[in-house]
Amino acid sequence: MDITIILIYLGAMLAFGWWGKRRASNSSEYLVAGRRLGGFLYTSTMAAVVIGGASTVGGVGLGYKYGISGMWLVVSIAAGVLLLSLLFAARIQRLKVYTVSGMLKLRYGIDATGASGLVMMAYTLMLTVTSTIAYATIFNVLFGFDRTLSVVLGGLIVVAYSAMGGMWSITLTDVVQFVIKTIGVFVLLLPFTWSKAGGYAGIKERVGEQALGLGTIGTGTIVTFFVVYTLGILIGQDIWQRVFTAKSPEVARWGGVTAGIYCLLYGVAGALIGLAASALMPDIGSSDDVYADVAVHVLPVGLSGIVLAAAVAAMMSTASGALIATATVARQDVLPLVAQIFGRTRPELDTSDPEADVRGNRLYVIVIGLVSIVIAALINDIVSALTIAYDILVGGLLVPILGGLVWRRATGTAAMAAMAVGTVATIATMFVVGDVLANEPVYVGLVSALVVFVATSLFTEPTPANVMSVWNARVSGKPEEDPVPVPAPIA
């Protein structure tokens, strides 16, 4: 029964991908769903992309190991979504660009897209790979597949539905995944495990007071979660690309706030499930196995299949979002840089033939998807690689991106200098400390970038008036006409 439920779910993902293919008629439709998602679709897809395998399987595992304090990883992600939505989402939605690097070019009038695009591409690719690796934890329990086969199977399904309809396919599948995750975690797994463990009194008696403390995981770890994940959410291409899909600034703001509150509750629920599991099954060897083991041994057959499908949904939603983000950055930002390095004229994307343009985007999704599957199959543990990508993303890009959004005096020269100094300082500190997982690199990178950004902005010529005029028009909601006709909004 459980296997049948998972197979039906996987088949449905492919069917929705095929359905979304009909809507992807041009680049705007393929990459950002025509910029016309209404409140429900936007909230669902935003919540789905940020709640991935790390937040679901990892969040329950942290709850198992640290008790209620295990919630802080997902809470820090929720904080990032809330801050982005309340402070920046409306402004970002009005820009009508496709990438974070495109925002830098629009704001500063400089071509920094290649350099920043490389960093962003490394981050989104590692996010795709980690989500792809996570399939093994579920498919091994259900089908008995080895790790490589699990990675290939899950990865190919994500590549297939993502490539077919782009952001439309991903949005439609995200809605289904959002519903399945909500039912699996809130309606089934949380009440069943909590009840079977004897409720609050029974759990407290079995695991002790320490597991009920908010700070058990450690203050340093909590602070690092907020620095790395909250700030990473603020500038991640996979998240911004969802903001670009909103039909209005209001949808981007309040739909995002709703998604952030949902993520907050999801984090608490995951920690409570893990806490209950530690009372019920104290001898689980790996915290990554807790979610699947509890689903199989605590829930009745059939219901456990829905809960396992929820975990697969979490992994696939993050993987597909990161995949299309990587493909978008690769084509829009990195391809021109590569052409320049080899002495060729910077290529301009030809959008005069919408069907050919969509085929080009689709090819990038397929190629990068296959690359991510190969990397995921070859590497056993890429926590270090993902940490490096996150640290460089935050240390090198946070200051110039947010600085451009909030400070009119910020200049392009300062942005370039901050990117270079922040990235170098982050990497250099990793070598000095001798531990890529240490907290110091991202802090050193951030402080270095901030000092250089402010000082250079004050001592260089302001951004040209014509550049600021275009920027101000976009931010104020009076942009130039979008090059692609936008159909009527969808509720």
TrEMBL record:
Pfam families, sorted: SSF
Residue ranges of the TM segments: 6-21, 41-64, 70-92, 113-143, 149-168, 175-194, 214-236, 257-281, 301-325, 363-382, 388-407, 414-436, 442-460
Compartments where located: Membrane
Predominant localisation class: membrane
Recorded topology in the membrane: Multi-pass membrane protein
Keywords attached to this entry: Membrane, Transmembrane, Transmembrane helix, Transport
Gene3D superfamilies (alphabetical): Sodium/glucose cotransporter
Similarity field: Belongs to the sodium:solute symporter (SSF) (TC 2.A.21) family.
Protein name, as recorded: Sodium:solute symporter
Organism: Rhodococcus jostii
Lineage, uppermost ranks: Bacteria, Bacillati, Actinomycetota, Actinomycetes, Mycobacteriales
